[in-house]
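Field guide to reading this record: the first block holds the primary sequence, the second block holds the structure written as discrete tokens, and the final block holds curator observations. Each block starts with its own label. This record concerns HAD family hydrolase, catalogued under organism Glycomyces lechevalierae.

BLOCK 1 — SEQUENCE
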Amino acid sequence: MSSLHDRAVDYLNPAKPTGPMPEIEAVLFDFSNTLFRLIDLEDWLRRFATAAGRTGELEAAGTEATARNLTETYRLPEVKAAQEGRDLSAEQHRAAMYAWWRHVELIRGAEDTAYATLQAPDSWVPFPDTEPVLKALRGKGVRVGIVSDFAWDLKIHLDRHGLGDLVDAYVISYRLGKEKPAAELFQTACEQLGADPKATLMVGDNATRDGGAAAIGLRAYVVPARPGTGERGLAHVLDFLP
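BLOCK 2 — STRUCTURE
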């Protein structure tokens, strides 16, 4: 039930009729778990162990057991606390990851190698519906941007898979010192694309963070969070186009 204050505000500021919504002319995408995903955790551990010269240690501990340990240590209160605001800068992200990895015996002392493995261009792979949707948008002349909470240049991953030329703008949190749902990220992306926010669609997997785009007039489409490795339902983005 609305409060007396809310009703007073509604009375003093009645809704005004608006014109029709403009057609979509630009689409913004989240990156992680929307367009791309990190390779399987066990594969990542094998790559790390090879690069760090710790293959024997991984085999002795067991890849599955180490993956479980990695997941469990992420839940430690001090580790979770270290993740707050980690994408506000490259330095904060690195510190947050090291705060986690120092609790994992296999990685402890080789955090630099683990971080390099995390950042490797081929450590992130596109979902199966990413390329077809990006190509379809390009074919329709729709401008495309990525708005993501991340700590390094994402173009290296798209270029690795031949998709870099299908994205026109990258707005990444570590460069602006702000995380979604801060309006500045979405506004900046629209400005870089030369698009009216009301004619722009934001696509992501987090209703709170990505849905925040609606606060400045964008429409938002949220796909299911963490569905595994299959399609994300990205093809429905094309249904928003004229």
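BLOCK 3 — OBSERVATIONS
DSSP finds eleven helices and seven strands in the chain.
The mean pLDDT is 92.
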